[in-house]
Amino acid sequence: MALTQSQQLLQQQKLSPQQIQMIKLLELPAAMLEQRIKQEIENNIVLEEDHSETEGEEPTQISMDEYLTEDDTPSYKSRLNHFSKDDRPRNFQISGGRSLQDSLIEQLGFKNLNQRQKTIAEFIIGSIDNDGYLRRDLQSLSDDMAFTVAIEVDIPELEQMLDIIQHLEPTGVGARDLRECLLLQLGSHALDSEEKILAYTILENHFDEFVKKHYQRMINRLGTTEDIFRAAVQEIQHLQPKPGNLFSEDSDSAPYIIPDFILDYNDGEFDLTLNSYNIPELKINRHYLDVIRQNSGKSEQRMSESEKEAMLFVKSKIDAAKWFMSAIKQRHDTLMRTMQTILDYQQEYFKDGDRSKLKPMILKDIAERTGLDVSTISRVANSKYVQTSFGIILLKSLFSEAMQTTSGEEVSSYEIKNLLEKCIEEENKRRPLTDEQLMNILNDKGYCIARRTVAKYREMLGIPVARLRKEI
Description:
Layout: H1 17-27, H2 30-43, E1 47-49, H3 64-69, H4 100-108, H5 115-126, H6 138-148, H7 155-165, H8 178-187, H9 194-205, H10 207-211, H11 215-222, H12 226-237, H13 243-248, E2 261-266, E3 269-274, E4 282-284, H14 286-296, H15 305-345, H16 347-352, H17 363-370, H18 374-382, E5 385-388, E6 391-394, E7 402-404, E8 410-412, H19 413-425, H20 435-444, H21 451-460
Parallel strand pairs: 2-5
Antiparallel strand pairs: 1-4, 2-3, 5-6, 7-8
């Protein structure tokens, strides 16, 4: 075939590197933005933090005669306030706490173990999860020990060392499943009552039926009364399904949320600010700007190759710094513009935090009011938080679909979820309401909703099916 040439005119949309940088900055929450700015300062030599607001300020000298001659000292003279409006107290992460594994290894020191047994026990402890479970089978542990520490261990020896670990604190640690964990906890106490003996029998022989809540069938099979069976179930419910969590609850290194917006409501007026705490202000180092100015009058013929390369390098870094600072400012404007629109849309909710006052709101509603793209609103709402007087709220949680009642009124799905949750709280626990019964109740109240929608909302609320809500 002969080769031919043709000319075509095509239109394509491509994102520039600056636009990609802006999108990535927009997605970052406040904590990660601080790290991103510091990373850019390290990578770009012409960028530096702007300390101009605090540098060169001399403390005001106040004469002692003022205090001696004035009887009524104004309050502002006895109070030092050097914090800006954006400053807020913050918790600090403490990383010096002990882990569950450290506690178990420390307890091993009180056991009479030789060096081989201690090495095996420490290896098993290292395989225990933070919630206290050993989810790896013993054969895998035996193979790993042969490769990593060059110790040949058979399964019976591992079982023996695991039994020692399972008698450490917290009780139930080292269990391989929920049933074994509960049995370890229940067996650590004396079975000195009928309900405790029955609880142990239920866990040991009828665990699957207990999980599925086939209570009446178990009562008939065990030949016991309903009162004793109820007491046995309460004994089981008092046990800890995740023993490792008991240890981690006292840790001070739990993660916390840094809000991106701070919203105050006083005297009927809202005050919305962007949380810029600990986010450094940026500026371009004047030394590099002076270098550019000094060499701008020179012709290229008078400059050496090294000087030309240095000029090109500095210019590229200055351009990159300007683009980054511009992207930070654009991020600030986009966030404030979006949050202000959300605030205007949901004013009644932000007054007191009553979720029943949330209006139906989707991303498109905010996009149309701000003139921004839906994808931009999605990036803002996905990982940003606002601090209010009633708690820290994820922006994404404020968006909900609209449902129509029989009267034609549009209500938020949150209103239906609250009503669904209330119906389940007030139900007869001996005969919980099924999804179909809940659907009929909501339909009688004027909410047109299908059974599959009821099931979806119930799962979103973390509520199990009727059979698993049953109590005796």
